Amino acid sequence: MLADGPEKTGDIERIKNEGKELTKEEKQRLRKEKKQQKKNKEKKDEKAPLESEKEKKPASSSPASQATAQPPTQKASSGVPAPAPVPVAASEAPSPVDKPAKSKAELKAERRARQEAERASKQSKKGEVGQQAAPSKAKAPPSELQPVVKRLPEHIQVDNPEVLKKLAKKLERQQIPLRSDYGYKVSLFSHLHQYSRKAPLTQQLSIPSSVIHPAIVQLGLQYSQGIVAGSNARSVALLHAFKQIIRDYTTPPNEELSRDLVNKLKPYISFLNQCRPLSASMGNAIKYIKKEISNIPSQCKEEEAKSKLQDCIDCYINEKIILAAKAIAKYAIEKISDGDVILVYGCSSLVNHILCEAFEKNRKFRVIVVDSRPRLEGREALRRLVQRGISCTYVLISAVSYILPEVSKVFLGAHALLANGYVMSRVGTSQIALVAKAFNVPVLVCCETYKFCERVQTDSFVSNELDDPDDLIVTRKGKTHLEHWQDVSSLGLLNLVYDVTPPDFVDLVITDLGMIPCTSVPVVLRVKNVDQ
Amino acid sequence: MEFQAVLMAAGGGSRMTDLTYNTPKAMLPVGNKPLMWYPLNLLERVGFEEVIVITTKEVQKMMSADPKIKQDVKMKLEVVCIQEDGDMGTADALRHIQPKIKTDILVVSCDLITDAALHEVVDLFRAHNATLAMLMSKAHEFTETVPGQKGKKKTAEQRDFVGVDESGKRLLFMANEADLEEGLSIRKSILRKHPRVHIKTGLVDAHLYCLKKSVVDFLTDNKSISSIRGELVPYLVRKQFSKTINGQKTKDDVEDQNQKKSDSSTNLELHISSRDEPLLQLAQERSCWNDHRGDMSEAYHGGKLRCYVHIMDQGLCYRVNTLAAYIEANRLVSGTYDVLNVFYCINIGSDSIIGASCQVAEKTSIKRSTIGNSTTVKEKVKVTNSIIMHGVTIEEGCNIQGSVICSNAIIGRGADLKYCLVGNGQRIEPEGEAHNIIGNDA
């Protein structure tokens, strides 16, 4: 059916032109085609801005155009050759409505491209933010070329003015102030947001915040100032705020709790996103909550529904965070033997928990804490470990290759585990894993399953977070050399937050489901989806 | 709702009785607007829609008559009247309105004129889940000559010692020179937790406080506290480091034992802890953030009661509670707020404010002054650096410099006033000369 499409319409047109009467089948087919053409027209309007954006990217004349052209083509889907035929198809078929008689070779090429696109779309899973062109998938019209276009998340398209306009409109509708970017952005990362801590979002809010629940304003402030930092802490704080929202919520008349509450949460989530981009764990938690809310039966009374939701939240935290940590600690302790020298990086709540538990179980080991600027989170990890009585060494990341000959194991925490096995964690983690691999030291990543994310990334440029560049400025002996960095036109400060570690450098991932190799992450995700 | 605003407008203005013996402090005209218009305007600008105004019946009557408040203030004002006898302190007033308080409160004093960004104070309150957040400002020298003052001698103000931590945000202690007998003593527990303390003395307390609701509930149980600034704030600041909160007992707190006995029996702690305490604790535990470094304790040293202060170094922040402050405020306000009515044929500086329905005749010169509503200024008058309130009549040929003329006064022809304060409804004789005099009853 799919392959015959263009040829059949060609036939029909020929028949029409010849003036012969159309058979019943041909009439039906004609009607179907007309319907699809109408739908394609609508989709074309949707596709046009995306196409123009795709064409714009390769055409940009910035010096890093090569580099920026690469990530967009990788961005689109699961790294399968689907993007390549997509721009080709787009340029090839500008008006799918018109059906000029195509040569057989052209038709074959179109068919092949379409098949590839559909194969790619079938393979890629639904992204957490990617609203797949599901309509396009379902309606993949047999006669038209429908490149499978995934809508890219807004937060990695900051250099596209149309996307920014859309975002501004959306925020205006939700009555949330727009946070403006700050400072010069390094060109490789100009597609990401960069905010300043000195310009909080609350500047533009009225003080007794009426539009946004006060718990969310407080949470947003704590995120943007870094008071609540770390994947687990952010998720727990988010769920705590949600509990308060649910407690203070009353269903307006003529509305259903299951639908209205989800709509109420949307502007709050946009607000939190503006304060600090959401983490993968927060995204999963939000998905869970939204699902639970929409699953509330309509005949359920409000009080009952609210208490049920609060129990769900407590249950989620208990299962996915507290018990998961216990399970992971149990598995990890098996891997820690007496006399071990364990290297940890930064401050991961899970790794700290594991080490403290292992120490309680009387394992004899010592820890080397590696730290890096500007966050210097290692100091906090150091404090927590030393408080328990564990003997620690503290080095900066520049000394990692000097200290590695002493190390027997490396324990790393993760911010998220991507679907292709890559580990997304604090910037610097991939370096540690790399050096550890060079020294043949086993690298173990500890991560709860609720941080598993269906996104796929092979590099750290595409989707990352830019922190306040002023954090890099340091005052020593009364002199601040970078104080006026904005005045120097050729200088840009880059404060990255995350990076991705390829699975070849990771020997084992310890999750609450057990100890799995890095490449088994898609399996876990698939099992999780089936369960749900 | 996040905050309820409370405006304390019942103060008597005890430090400027010359001005307030007739007009209550809240309604003194500053730049032709009643003094309480300024904090109300501030609250309206940041987005409040309702304010609870605690005031006396007299002020309430004047408020309803005043056009500025009726028209310009779009917020809903809920006026609570209290007795005028002056026994009620600000904390007593809070206790009085406790049934109306449903959320955290923002208490503002009626004599505050500021352009501070309130979100700085409120953000401290929100982000750190503080019990108290207040606003302070670097004090400015008053440069204008004040009527009644002999020379430039500054009145010996009692100094306030304010101790903040390294970041300049956390309030560690607060003491007034009047309360200290021998010297300033700082508890060891504070120094152990915050080894670097910055002590500041030249700060003006703006009397703007964000307080948690639990504090108001605490006040209802403890009737001994009657003033916010004088008693409640120092109590809260002291209680941050109180041993009962941290649950540790050490030897060197004998004085603390005595204080504990005199302190109220109800534990403020019980009020502060919220419902989802374990979740908040969990989030804080898992978070890799600490507010200090160098010792082994967790964020905030495990203390639940925290007091924060935002110290403004730039911008306007005045508390109009003395005559000097009143004159200074008038001067500044004419520069920042809108000026009306430009007349021709006379010399009016752009830094003066002329009120509505004024009659200013020709050949007058008005510089850096504020003229109230319904004032009549006749010919050949020179007004410099002065504050003329409503309904005043200034006859021809007067020369008024650096003075404050209260409402309904009549300045006779050819009078020459330098640095004087003329009280309400007074008459200055024609050709009279007065220099640096405060006259209340002629």
UniProtKB/TrEMBL annotation, chain B:
Subcellular location: Cytoplasm, Cytosol
InterPro entries linked: eIF2B_gamma (IPR051960), LbH_EIF2B3/5 (IPR056764), NTP_transferase_dom (IPR005835), Nucleotide-diphossugar_trans (IPR029044)
Compositionally skewed regions (Basic and acidic residues) per UniProt: 249-263
Stretch list, region Disordered: 247-268
Major site of localization recorded for this protein: cytoplasm
UniProt xrefs under SUPFAM superfamilies: Nucleotide-diphospho-sugar transferases
GO molecular function, one term: translation initiation factor activity
Superkingdom field: Eukaryota
Record keywords: Cytoplasm, Initiation factor, Protein biosynthesis
Keyword Protein biosynthesis part of the UniProt annotation: yes
CC terms in the record's Gene Ontology section: cytosol; eukaryotic translation initiation factor 2B complex
Keyword Aminoacyl-tRNA synthetase: no
Occurrences of domain EIF2B subunit epsilon/gamma LbH (ranges): 347-430
Family affiliation: Belongs to the eIF-2B gamma/epsilon subunits family.
The protein's name in its UniProt record: Translation initiation factor eIF2B subunit gamma
Gene name of the record: EIF2B3
